[in-house]
């Protein structure tokens, strides 16, 4: 679903881009086309203009000629001089190929051919054209001015031919028509001679008929698909010609002028910018995606950690908190962000101290990296201890912008420490109680004999006194005291015997009280016994630099014992082992680190015999200490024997008593290369099945 949404978005983005590019290309194409068209229209306009100018040139040239020819017959009356003048005129006017002087009856009085060509009418003769000339002259006579004939083609001897046109000019002398001057023009030469040279350059000039038939041409005709053409009418009396001007520029180039080139260059630049923009956009998108991913990763990380995170700016305002922090103090993030001091999670009674600490921090004093302890308050008002670690917050350009704090709720840790301390106190109290009990037991044992002796001596003394009283009547002597004295002595003795007996009873009751613990028996898994003492053992191990190794055989069955007393035994043996290894550390020749690393205390629990159905479980505590010398071994279990300065010497004797009361056995062995292993056994708790069918158990 997410994927299809993303692909739809990408598709839309691409189609937008395609549309933009298409629009831009169309716009640029239009611009280039418009620029080209503008250029074409400029060329066309110029051509039209030039064509009009050319027509004006031709017309004015022809008028000039008319004026010149009008002057001719009037000034030169004689045929010879006419010839001379006419020949001179023909040399000056190359467009004229023949000049004729005719009388009123159209008879040729004289003619001159241009010196620049072979005689035009030589091949076909002039007579075939008389009708045209006559028509022109009739028109001229009627108009009293120059009139032109239709143009006609005159083949020449060289296989070519020229298109010529006659102009008839009536000669009027003293208001009377006396004849005609007939001027034959070569159309091609009219174009070459009468049109201004600057207009002819680069164009093809031609005379055509109305239907487009080309009559004469000057310059090269243009070829190509797109040729600029301008046409102008040359309206002459008696004839109308079409002047056609063709631009030799031909098809306009792709970039006909600077404007188009500029537009194109700009268009290209625009395309390049578009391309760069697209690339930049793509890169930005990529960076955006990467950033998004990094942000999501960071968010997931912040949300998953249990450590509270809090960022503050230099004014002490909170700028960021993670969900762990919010749930720790029970306040919503929006209630914390951008709030000024005091913070809602500061206990009111401590707010002053915290404010002071904040001021110290703001003054630029660095805080310890290992953190400091503090107390925060939840929304419900309960206080809890926290450990705060702070580090300066440095932004991307290396500027110090605030403080980042990691906050740990240490209330659980405190609770565990408290529980551990309480259990240690309890165990120590139990140990002391057990010791007192042991002492009481020992005292009772030791005092029983003297008390029994006192009792029997008192009984003996009483018997003796009784004998003396029985021999009454004898006079009182030193050997036989007075009877009343004997009675008193007898009473005293009886009292002594009674008191001794009473003391014996008291002691027995104390002894019984101490022994009554024997009755406490529970079924416990061996591992549970070990776990109960582990906090204390590991505490001491850490203090003394001892490594603990625990090996518990899972095949061990639960044992029947007084857990408190057995825990005491385990604790005692472990402590003795660890203390024995302390001496090793200081022993001469011991190598610091290696001897230190050799301080290993192994606590092992396994069935006493190799078979799994063993009725006994063996607990062993082995150390790598100094071992037990022969001298110590002799008194090891003797009460009050100790080699330690602060020792009581009751531990081992108490341990043995406890184990023996359980029916087990406590002993020790030396360990090679050094150390001692103390081990004891405890009975496996028998299940009802085991009791009913001894030897047929199914465990
Ligand atoms: P205490 O520990 O108060 O001295 P104990 O009865 O527990 O009393 O121990 C008696 C003595 O036995 C100790 O002082 C010590 O010399 C010796 N001893 C006990 N356990 C060990 C041991 N694991 N290695 C060497 N000596 C030991």
Description:
This protein is α+β, with helices and mostly antiparallel strands and 699 residues long. The chain contains 17 helices and 22 strands. Strands 1, 2, 3, 4, 5 and 6 form a six-stranded antiparallel beta sheet that branches. The longest helix is centred in the first third of the chain and has 74 residues, at 2-75. 23% of the residues are buried. The chain binds adenosine-5'-diphosphate (ADP). Adenosine-5'-diphosphate (ADP) binds at residues 572, 576-577, 580, 623, 625-626, 628, 632, 636, 641-644, 647-649, 651-652, 676.
Largest sheet: 6 strands, antiparallel
The share of residues in helices is 40-55%
Which secondary-structure class do the elements indicate?
alpha+beta
Shape: rod-shaped
CATH topology of the largest domain: Beta-Lactamase
CATH architecture annotation of the largest domain? 2-Layer Sandwich
Total count of strands: 22
Fraction in beta strands = 15-25%
- The domain tally reads 4
Distance between the amino and carboxyl termini:
59 Å
Q: Which class of the largest domain in CATH terms?
A: Alpha Beta
Mean pLDDT: 81
CATH superfamily of the largest domain: PAS domain
**Ligand identities:** adenosine-5'-diphosphate
Give the number of helices: 17
Uncertain residue ranges: 586-596, 691-699
The radius of gyration over CA amounts to 71 Å
Q: Briefly, what is this?
A:
The protein is an alpha+beta fold and 699 residues long.
Give the helices and strands, then pairings.
Layout: H1 2-75, H2 79-92, E1 96-103, E2 108-113, H3 130-143, E3 147-148, E4 152-155, E5 161-173, E6 176-186, H4 187-194, H5 197-200, E7 203-208, E8 214-218, E9 229-236, E10 239-247, H6 258-304, E11 308-313, E12 318-321, H7 323-329, H8 333-336, H9 351-362, E13 372-377, E14 383-394, E15 400-409, H10 411-470, H11 483-515, E16 522-524, H12 526-544, E17 547-552, E18 559-561, H13 563-586, H14 592-597, E19 600-607, E20 616-622, H15 630-635, H16 651-661, E21 666-670, E22 676-683, H17 688-692
The structure holds adenosine-5'-diphosphate (ADP).
Adenosine-5'-diphosphate binds at residues 572, 576-577, 580, 623, 625-626, 628, 632, 636, 641-644, 647-649, 651-652, 676.
């Amino acid at each position: 679903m997410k994927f299809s949404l993303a692909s739809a978005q990408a598709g839309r983005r691409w189609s937008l881009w395609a549309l933009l590019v298409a629009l831009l290309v169309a716009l640029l194409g239009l611009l280039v086309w418009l620029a080209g068209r503008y250029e074409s229209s400029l060329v066309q306009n110029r051509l039209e203009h030039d064509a009009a100018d050319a027509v004006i040139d031709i017309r004015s040239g022809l008028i000039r000629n008319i004026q010149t020819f009008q002057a001719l017959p009037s000034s030169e009356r004689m045929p010879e001089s006419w010839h001379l003048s006419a020949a001179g005129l023909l040399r000056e006017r190359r467009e004229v190929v023949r000049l004729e002087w005719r009388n009123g009856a159209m008879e040729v009085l004289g003619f001159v051919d241009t010196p620049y060509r072979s005689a035009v009418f030589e091949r076909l003769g002039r007579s075939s054209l008389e009708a045209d000339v006559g028509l022109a002259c009739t028109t001229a006579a009627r108009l009293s001015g120059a009139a032109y004939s239709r143009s006609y083609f005159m083949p020449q001897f060289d296989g070519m031919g020229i298109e010529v046109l006659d102009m008839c000019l009536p000669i009027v002398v003293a208001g009377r028509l006396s004849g005609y001057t007939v001027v034959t023009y070569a159309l091609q030469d009219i174009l070459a001679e009468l049109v201004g040279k600057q207009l002819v350059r680069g164009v093809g000039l031609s005379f055509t008929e109305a239907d487009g038939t080309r009559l004469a041409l000057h310059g090269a005709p243009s070829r190509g698909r797109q040729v600029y053409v301008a046409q102008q009418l040359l309206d002459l009396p008696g004839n109308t010609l079409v002047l056609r001007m063709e631009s030799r520029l031909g098809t306009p180039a792709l970039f006909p002028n600077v404007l188009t080139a500029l537009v194109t260059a700009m268009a290209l630049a625009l395309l390049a910018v578009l391309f760069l923009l697209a690339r930049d956009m793509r890169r930005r998108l990529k960076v955006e995606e990467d950033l998004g991913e990094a942000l999501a990763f960071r968010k997931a990380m912040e949300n998953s950690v249990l450590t509270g995170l809090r960022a503050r700016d230099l004014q002490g305002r909170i700028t960021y908190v993670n969900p762990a922090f919010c749930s720790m103090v029970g306040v919503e993030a929006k209630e914390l962000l951008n709030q000024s001091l005091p913070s809602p999670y500061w206990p009111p009674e401590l707010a002053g101290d915290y404010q002071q600490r904040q001021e110290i921090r703001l003054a630029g004093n660095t805080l310890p990296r290992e953190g400091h302890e503090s107390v925060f308050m939840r929304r419900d008002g309960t206080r809890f201890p926290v450990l705060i670690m702070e580090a300066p917050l440095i932004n991307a350009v290396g500027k110090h912008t605030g403080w980042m704090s990691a906050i740990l709720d240490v209330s659980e840790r405190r609770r565990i420490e408290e529980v551990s301390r309480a259990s240690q106190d309890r165990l120590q109290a139990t140990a002391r109680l057990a010791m007192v009990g042991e002492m009481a037991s020992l005292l009772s044992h030791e005092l029983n004999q003297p008390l029994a002796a006192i009792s029997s001596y008192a009984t003996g003394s009483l018997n003796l006194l009784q004998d003396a009283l029985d021999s009454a009547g004898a006079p009182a002597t030193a050997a036989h005291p007075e009877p009343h004295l004997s009675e008193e002595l007898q009473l005293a003795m009886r009292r002594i015997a009674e008191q001794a007996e009473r003391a014996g009873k008291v002691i027995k009751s104390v002894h019984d009280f101490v022994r009554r613990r024997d009755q406490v028996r529970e079924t416990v898994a061996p591992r549970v016994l070990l776990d109960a003492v582990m906090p204390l053992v590991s505490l001491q191990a850490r203090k003394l630099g001892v490594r603990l190794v625990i090996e518990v055989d899972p095949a061990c069955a639960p044992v029947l014992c007084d857990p408190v007393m057995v825990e005491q035994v385990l604790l005692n043996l472990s402590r003795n082992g660890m203390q024995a290894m302390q001496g090793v550390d200081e022993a001469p020749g011991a190598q610091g680190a290696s001897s230190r690393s050799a301080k290993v205390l192994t606590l092992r629990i396994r069935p006493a015999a190799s078979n799994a159905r063993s009725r006994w479980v063996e607990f062993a505590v082995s150390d790598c200490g100094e071992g037990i010398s022969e001298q110590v071994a002799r008194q090891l279990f003797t009460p009050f024997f100790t080699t330690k300065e602060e020792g009581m010497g009751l531990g081992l004797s108490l341990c043995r008593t406890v184990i023996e009361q359980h029916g087990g056995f406590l002993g020790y062995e030396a360990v090679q290369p050094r150390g001692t292993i103390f081990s004891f056994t405890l009975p496996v708790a028998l299940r009802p099945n085991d009791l009913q069918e001894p030897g047929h158990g199914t465990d």
